[in-house]
Write a structure and sequence with these properties.
With about 300 residues, the protein is α+β, with helices and mostly antiparallel strands. It has a domain of about 60 residues. About 20% of the residues lie in helices and about 35% in strands. Strands 5, 6, 7, 8, 9 and 11 form a 6-stranded antiparallel β-sheet that branches. The chain has a 5-stranded mixed β-sheet with strand order 10-15-14-13-12, with no helix packed on it. It is globular and about 80 Å long. The C terminus is likely disordered.
């Protein structure tokens, strides 16, 4: 009798394991089918010359993406062939952010995204709704996912403060004249819902809730994280001459570098960085809406003092 129960137990374990394996195979096949369709739609909403076709492709993409993320354990599927979308995981694997943009007919952009939580076989996500046109002072605003300052992210930094939070680096296409880059802050409340923005930046402008850089669309701006120094480094942007100091759409890098240094859970502004002491990094940056992610500059000169 004892041998019978052992055999029965082993049989049940085998059946459960086989069923789980079958479900995993089924899920992977389903996700692969979704990925192929998302890849095709992504190419269309980035490259199609017709404004209406781009937007229709994006609406179809959103519906299909939601369906794909509802597949059990979709969090672990990379969707790495869908190049139109930036997909980055938090360092602690608590969540990932999917973000992308669609160019409008006038050369401006609208951004789309979602925060997908790592919840196993059930989908928990927070759609990001681009509220950029209504945020008149984005550096002063603390919002939620329904009032998002739309950005396509390429880096997540976890900050182990008294209340842990995350810093996001991203590209924000703006107009036919200018581009923006953004340092965003993401935190979660006690109900695990996201908040965007926090007054953690000290230095050249106090009480910033996020940091926004604007520069001419013809230029490329460095914005990256140096983990071994707990430092966010970026190009110093300057006008071509003082007559244009109130026109950020004319600004460009002046071969000098500034940054934010992490100290006691806050980011302290530092200037006149010597880039010879900054290690090379492999973060990606965006310089053109139709370009794929490219590597940051591999060699950088020392800052020149004004």
């Amino acid at each position: 009798m004892k041998g019978f129960f052992i055999a029965l137990f082993l049989l049940l374990m085998f059946n459960a394991s086989f069923a789980q394996h079958s479900d995993e195979v089924k899920n992977l096949k389903e996700l692969k089918i979704y990925q192929d369709s998302l890849k095709s739609l992504g190419k269309k909403f980035i490259n199609d010359p017709d404004d209406l076709e781009r937007k229709n492709a994006n609406y179809r993409f959103i519906r299909m993406l939601v369906a794909a993320l509802k597949v059990p354990h979709s969090f672990n599927y990379p969707f790495d062939s869908v190049k139109a979308v930036s997909i980055i995981n938090s360092p602690d694997n608590r969540f990932r952010i999917l973000s992308w943009h669609v160019m409008n007919q006038d050369g401006s952009y609208r951004f789309y995204g979602t925060v997908q939580m790592n919840t196993g076989d059930k989908l928990l996500m927070y759609p990001l709704e681009d509220y950029s046109p209504f945020l008149k002072n984005p550096e002063d605003s603390i919002t939620d996912n329904h009032k998002w300052y739309g950005v396509q992210y390429y880096k997540i930094i976890r900050v182990a403060a008294a209340k842990p939070y995350y810093v996001l680096l991203g590209w924000k296409g703006n107009t036919v004249k200018s581009t923006k880059k953004v340092i965003e802050v993401l935190s979660f409340d006690k109900h695990d819902k996201p908040n965007l923005g926090a007054a953690v930046f000290d230095g050249n402008s106090k009480n910033r809730k996020r940091v926004v850089f604007e520069y001419t669309r013809q230029a490329s701006m460095l914005l990256r994280y140096v983990p071994d120094q707990n430092l966010i480094v970026f190009d110093h942007l300057s006008p071509p001459d003082q007559k244009m100091k109130n026109h950020p759409e004319t600004f460009g890098p002046d071969l000098s570098y500034d940054g934010y240094k992490l100290k006691n859970g806050r980011w302290v502004y530092v200037d006149n960085l010597d880039m010879r002491n900054i290690s090379e990094d492999k973060d990606v940056t965006y310089v053109d809406p139709k370009a794929q992610a490219i590597k940051d500059r591999s060699s950088l000169p020392a800052r020149k003092k004004n």
